[in-house]
From TrEMBL:
Highest taxon of source: Bacteria
Entry-linked InterPro entries: UPF0145_dom_sf, UPF0145_YbjQ-like
SUPFAM superfamilies cross-referenced by the UniProt entry: YbjQ-like
Homology family: Belongs to the UPF0145 family.
Protein name: UPF0145 protein ACFPZJ_11055
Protein source organism: Streptomyces bullii
Pfam families documented for this protein: YbjQ_1 (PF01906)
Native organism taxonomy: Bacteria, Bacillati, Actinomycetota, Actinomycetes, Kitasatosporales
Listed Gene3D superfamilies: Hypothetical protein apc22750. Chain B
Bilayer-spanning residue ranges: none
Length: 121
């Protein structure tokens, strides 16, 4: 199924539709291929730790850390889509992110969901 059949897409890999819902109106799940995930761990450099420490005193957004987290989430999602595509999926249902501190030296981000083959009803 191409993205044209979905009538739009999101992100850099529009041939795999990724949604947070358990189903998609107008489509049926032909096959469930199982869980897929994308995982990445990013370390925090000393400059961001110092900047975050100073910012925590005066308050406000930690822009450097926000940017890093957005990049990390995007990388995890890209890896999820790669894994889904490699298994023959054109959709991922019940998509979620999980974020965890990794031994206080970085942040682990896991994107996960259920890879499926979708068809129009």
């Amino acid at each position: 199924m191409s993205i044209d059949e979905f009538g739009g897409g999101q992100g850099p890999d529009p041939d795999v539709l990724v949604v947070t819902t358990n189903d998609i109106p107008g489509y049926r799940v032909e096959r469930v291929l199982g869980e897929v995930f994308g995982l990445t761990v990013r370390s925090r450099h000393i400059g961001s730790k110092i900047g975050a420490g100073l910012k925590s005193v005066v308050g406000g957004e930690l822009r450097g850390l926000t940017k890093t987290l957005v990049q990390t989430r995007n990388q995890a999602m890209d890896r999820l889509v790669e894994q889904a595509r490699a298994r023959g999926a054109n959709g991922v249902l019940a998509f979620r992110f999980d974020v965890t501190d990794a031994a206080d030296i970085g942040t682990e981000v896991c994107a996960y969901g259920t890879a499926v083959v979708l068809a129009r009803e």
